[in-house]
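Q: Given only this backbone (472 positions), what sequence would you predict?
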């Protein structure tokens, strides 16, 4: 197979060059990665099944899975690995549990609804949608059975073509399969090294962060249209809000710069970090690339390349958990009890919301850090959430209340100290040590809302828009 692929790539090089010579800039196809773009992968059901059935601790399972992945990457079959493992470790025969293992595997894939909507819109507008994914044979079989590959053609899977991203041959083969020049293709992937590899081959690349960010990127390229985007933005009053805190600490409170510094130092106590490029007051991002552990910063969705400041989310643009209050619509009636100038029968503007909160929240307010936790779960949209957070309390509450005792903010106010990339999935034990140490260092400390010329440092904007209202 590998010899065949090499031959195809050599032959295709001339073919692609000829295509590019006479190409135009009109986009014909959008190519998607699978994991982290079309669906997130939540391994917790599978981990629980294997730990219970094989009587393994989480650390033992982590080490075993790492060996299995190496075995599969070198061309081995997943079932054969587990068969040998069971024989060598005196476990139950693989035949007695592997079918249930595969059934459980089907539960690990969590659809990203927003991306699915974008794919449908692209197809509706006449664009070809293709798939380019690194995946094992057993995983590909399950993904295909679940119907995830149905909207895409062609579908190039590493287990079938014998090469993986970011190998340049992958993208040459992709262009051959599409029968298109590089200038007519957009490639979407959640990993920066794959996007950069595509760009080197002349393909326009977009690093996926969220469906909203992808939608905006495609709008900027005139692939999706303004009216569709505007309609989506208006849905559910998608105005978000943030509380920013003082960067520098004082005698009775800690600043976000010191919080960032403590977070990064504590992570380095447990991980061999080769690169640390995290901005001084930003949410950290811990990830692994090319066998290196990297500390960088989580980027602003509306400002790619800029580290997102450590903050508390005042209002979310969509619900995180059912039966909870997170969005402007959830708490709007309570907000109008404080500011009756807000419109009653229609959604307010961003400025109206910003003005209302400036009447309520004062720049001298202090929140206490209650404790530090590791969050490993899912958002309503299917996104796998792995992060280290510091829970906040204002007068003992995890939300802001009006004078009637009713919430005017989302509940579960917190600071996100670090986001954990999916490449660090099997490092949860070390992460728990990081969390425990940070809890000892931060629990009980106070943070103070930023003061911008007598105004509370609050930021408001519409989801997907780079325009923000924030005191200067």
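A: Predicted residues:
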């Amino acid at each position: 197979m590998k010899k065949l692929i090499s031959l195809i790539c050599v032959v295709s090089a001339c073919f692609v060059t000829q295509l590019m010579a006479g190409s135009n800039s009109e986009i014909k196809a959008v190519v998607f990665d699978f994991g982290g773009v079309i669906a997130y992968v939540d391994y917790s059901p599978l981990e629980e099944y294997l730990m219970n059935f094989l009587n393994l601790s989480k650390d033992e399972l982590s080490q075993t899975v790492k060996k299995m992945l190496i075995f599969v990457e070198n061309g081995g079959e997943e079932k054969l690995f587990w068969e040998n493992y069971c024989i060598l470790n005196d476990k139950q025969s693989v035949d007695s549990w592997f079918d249930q293992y595969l059934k459980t595997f089907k539960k690990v894939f969590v659809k990203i609804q927003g991306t699915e909507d974008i794919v449908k819109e692209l197809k509706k507008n006449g664009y070809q949608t293709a798939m380019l994914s690194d995946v094992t044979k057993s995983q590909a079989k399950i993904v295909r059975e679940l119907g995830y590959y149905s909207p895409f053609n062609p579908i190039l899977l590493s287990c079938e073509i014998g090469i993986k991203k970011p190998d340049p041959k992958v993208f040459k083969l992709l262009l051959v399969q599409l029968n298109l020049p590089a200038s007519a293709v957009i490639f979407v992937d959640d990993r920066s090294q794959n996007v950069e590899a595509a760009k080197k081959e002349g393909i326009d690349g977009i690093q996926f962060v969220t469906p909203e960010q992808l939608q905006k990127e495609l709008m900027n390229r005139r692939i999706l249209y303004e009216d569709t985007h505007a309609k989506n933005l208006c849905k559910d009053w998608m105005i978000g809000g943030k509380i920013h805190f003082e960067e520098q600490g004082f005698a009775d409170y800690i600043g976000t710069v010191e919080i960032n510094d403590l977070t990064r130092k504590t992570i380095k106590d447990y991980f061999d970090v080769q690169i640390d490029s995290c901005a001084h007051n930003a949410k950290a991002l811990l990830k692994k690339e090319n066998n290196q552990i990297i500390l960088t910063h989580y980027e602003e969705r509306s400002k790619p390349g800029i580290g997102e400041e450590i903050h508390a989310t005042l209002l979310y643009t969509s619900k995180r958990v059912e039966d909870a209050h997170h969005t402007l619509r959830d708490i709007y009636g309570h907000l109008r009890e404080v500011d009756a100038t807000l419109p009653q029968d229609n959604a307010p503007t961003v400025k109206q919301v910003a003005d209302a909160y400036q009447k309520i929240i004062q720049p001298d307010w202090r929140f206490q850090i209650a404790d530090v936790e590791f969050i490993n779960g899912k958002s309503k949209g299917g996104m796998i959430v792995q992060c280290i957070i510091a829970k906040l309390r204002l007068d003992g509450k995890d939300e802001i209340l009006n004078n009637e005792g009713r919430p005017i903010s989302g509940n579960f106010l917190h600071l996100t100290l670090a986001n954990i990339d999916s490449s660090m999935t099997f490092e949860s034990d070390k992460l728990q040590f990081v969390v425990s140490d940070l809890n000892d260092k931060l629990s009980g400390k106070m943070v103070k809302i930023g003061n911008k010329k007598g105004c509370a440092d609050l930021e408001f904007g519409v989801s997907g828009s780079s325009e923000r209202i924030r005191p200067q």
